[in-house]
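User: I'm putting together notes for a lab meeting next week and I want to include a structural view of one of the chains we've been expressing. I don't have a solved structure, so I'd like a prediction I can at least talk through. The sequence is below, exactly as it appears in our construct file.
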Amino acid sequence: MLFSYKVVNQTGGEENGTIDAINIDVAISSLQRRGFIISSITPAEEGNLMKKLSSMFERVSTKELVMLSNQVSILFSSHVSVLRIFRLLAESSENPVLKRTLNEISDDIQGGESLSGAMRKHPAIFSEFYVNMIKAGEESGKLSETFKYLSDYMERNYAVMAKTKNALVYPAFIVITFIAVMILMLVLVVPSLSATLIEAGQPIPGYTQVVISLSNFVRSYGVFFLVFLIVCGVLIWKIGIPGGKQTWSHVKLSLPLFGNLYKKTYLTRIADNFDTLLTSGVPMLRAIEITGKVVGDEAFEKMLLDVSEKVKAGSSLSDAFGEHPENVPNIMTQMMKVGEETGELSTILKTLAKFYKRETDAVIDNMVGLIEPLMIIMLAGGVGTLLAAILIPIYNITASIS
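Assistant: Thanks for the context. Below is the predicted structure for the 402-residue chain, given as structure tokens.
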């Protein structure tokens, strides 16, 4: 809950601002820990509609987080205090969301909060993976190294995801173009041609009648249908549907071209997460739980939850992964087993992450090479079929008259 406050600071000056807290008592305690004398504090107003809409587009990119982690690591190495670091970064940040967040973290640190605790209050920016890495760094006294690990990890992850997304840009563009062309033809071209067929009084073939009916539907109800799809999409996105995540996970992992890409991407993320967390001193069980929450797929998250339970029961990591051959290839479990036996699990995980990244890059390159001609054929075939359904009957009418 957000509260607006007016306080007197330690130098005697007045300050206004907002604070996010569970209730007003927690908000008052937090302000008092910072050395403020509270003049007034009230629940903040929700704000107008435009402010709400604009906040939906406020975000901190992965690239900005990579730069932030790098800067913090460098400043820590220069023996700058954590409070001074976040004050400096807040002043230099050009992103208003990041600036506000860094200022709030600085205030919390000044009030006695730990860095990981202060970051945990901003889950939209700092993931559980990120916060737990920082917590491990605080406990081991290696915050500078931890931020460097985070920067390297996020940079690798960003590169993999960027390449995957870039591979999907062209197919998405072709599909959108195909849909736009089909709609334009159904709305503008088909009605004029169908009018010629109807005026001729000749029998209309069944496939042509289907195209004419589809054209009438799009012209009469297309806008309402589009609004219906948007509303359904928003509701599913915000509320979700029972079993929706599991179903979507099964569908995307079963796709002929994309399924293999998704699997290799998730395996890269699992190996990289494990390596980064274990290197930073996070316990094995906690590393498995965190990886499950950030892997980004329901099926793999469920698998990692099962792996965690088996490791708790005394099973080795490789044996626990070995019970999921549908998602984890045998080579990965065997290499993990070697790492456990030699005490070089972190090194093996790093090797696996690099291996699957190369595999992912190869799949993306092959996929792009296959998708381009397939999309062009689909676009040409769809438009050609639509035109043929109208032009063939017109040709037949012209031939019968002549």
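A couple of points you could mention at the meeting. The two ends are 79 Å apart (CA to CA). Residues 208 and 389 are 5 Å apart (CA to CA).

User: Perfect, that's what I needed.
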